[in-house]
Specification:
The complex is a heterodimer of chains A (about 110) and B (about 160).
Chain A: H1 2-14, H2 20-25, H3 34-43, H4 46-52, H5 56-72, H6 77-101
Helix pairs in contact in A: 1-3, 3-4, 5-6
Chain B: H1 4-7, H2 54-63, H3 73-94, H4 101-135, H5 137-141, H6 143-152
Helix pairs in contact in B: 2-3, 2-4, 3-4
Classes of the chains: A mainly alpha (about 110), B mainly alpha (about 160).
Amino acid sequence: MVHQHNGFLDWLSHHLLTCPLKAHFGVDCPGCGLQRSVISLFRGNVIESFKLYPATIPLIFIVIFTLLHLKFDFKFGAQLIKIVFAGVAVIILINYIYKIYNHQLLN
Amino acid sequence: MSDEQGNQPFEPIKNESEAVEPVNNGPVQPPPFQQPPPFGQFGGGMGQQNLPNATIALVLGILSIPGCCCYGIGLVFGIIAWVLSNGDIKKYNLNPNAYSISSYKNTKAGKICAIIGVVLSALYIAALIITIVVFGWAALKDPQLMKEMLEQKGLQ
């Protein structure tokens, strides 16, 4: 069962959607790294996932929380979603600026 | 120790206000009881239905960030969610009693998420355009040339 799971993740990691910007221009876009990060998170490498794309964990959290909120209607659900979403946006911006300054865009 | 105020007869509070009548300030007021509630409703008091696009606006607004970079899908999602939530907020303001508060909150959250997603996508596209203007199309097509130009400008 475990082997099957790993095999599926391996297959998935070889069949990622290609970023059009990276494919055409060779430059990372602000979302590059998200899919690799999600896969490494599924493999259990939280730190590696964070290094690849820091916003993955809050993004997954917000998606799951939204589904739960739509199902159960938490009292402060909408407020929490707003706050976490703004946080995710800030993380993505900071991450991209950091990448630009460290010349990690061209690789 | 007798308290003077304690001996006074207790007066019942007389502020029985008139029953609040619903204000009919619009030509079109949909009767809240005749329409069946939509699927997937959350909360909602008696006779209150959810705003029709609350869930869609919230979900699309959240999806506008992960889709921000793939072919500009995020921009499309964000704009759709923004427009839908704007329409719903207008509907709610026209007739606040007919719709549940939780769906109104969800719509507002969806609107804010959509705005953030649209702003991020717009920033991304603007940055792309600026890069093309500064470095030219050819440099973007050729990573080697791009590196050389970056070295010329002392950026790398």
